[in-house]
Automatic annotation (TrEMBL):
Annotated GO MF terms: DNA binding; sigma factor activity
NCBIfam families named in the record: sigma70-ECF
Domain RNA polymerase sigma factor 70 region 4 type residues, every copy: 114-165
Any Pfam family: Sigma70_r2
Family, per entry: Belongs to the sigma-70 factor family. ECF subfamily.
Protein name (record): RNA polymerase sigma factor
UniProt keyword list: Sigma factor, Transcription, Transcription regulation
Organism: Lysinibacillus telephonicus
Any one GO BP annotation for this protein: DNA-templated transcription initiation
Domain RNA polymerase sigma-70 region: 8-75
Keyword ATP-binding: no
PANTHER family: RNA POLYMERASE ECF-TYPE SIGMA FACTO, RNA POLYMERASE SIGMA FACTOR SIGV
């Protein structure tokens, strides 16, 4: 470890420990987390010269390390009920849930059907642009080539199509529960 790195450790050691303690609410876990953080700092020592704000960089490393550890622990536990009770961060902010519930799936299908019906009220140019971008997931450049227009025109059409579709959906009073203004 270089003298520069040792100086950073001396300056920010207490700060990192207190941040780890705040996140874990357990001194033993905080010490483990802090060791992981400093290990990552030592491994990425060559990047320190490129960092403008050391404290912010260390905070980011600490937060990411905490999230990574927490996600790993949740994946290891079979049920969400086994999550630690001392967690200071809402679980939904930390663990992405890629599974869609049955209710969400039904709602998604219903909303998709509504949006597709309302898209039929748009001019065909706007329909095609939205379809290419959101359904076929073409890039702006690909749409530009397909429609034989500039990328700027594609962007304008997307913007106008979304705005017009929103107007159409907001005008339908039966959709007030589905559409947010």
């Amino acid at each position: 470890m270089t003298n520069y790195l040792a100086g950073i450790y001396e300056e920010y050691n207490r700060y990192i420990y207190h941040l780890c303690l705040k996140l874990t609410r357990n001194s033993a876990e905080a010490e483990d987390l802090m060791q992981e953080v400093w290990l990552k700092v030592v491994r990425n020592e060559e990047q320190i010269d490129k960092v403008d704000y050391i404290k912010a960089w260390l905070t980011t490393i600490t937060m990411n390390t905490f999230r990574d550890r927490y996600r790993k622990n949740v994946r290891r536990s079979k049920y969400m009920m086994n999550q630690p009770e001392t967690l200071d961060v809402p679980i939904l902010d930390l663990v992405p849930n890629n599974e869609i519930s049955t209710e969400e799936q039904i709602e998604k299908v219903a909303v998709t059907k509504i949006v597709q019906e309302k898209m039929l009220q748009l001019d065909s140019i706007y329909q095609k642009t939205l379809w290419y971008f959101y359904v076929d997931q073409y890039s702006l450049a690909e749409i530009s080539t397909l429609m034989k227009v500039s990328i700027g025109t594609v962007k304008s059409r997307l913007f106008r199509a979304k705005a017009r579709l929103k107007e159409i959906m907001l005008a339908d009073t039966s959709l007030q529960d589905v559409v947010m203004a």
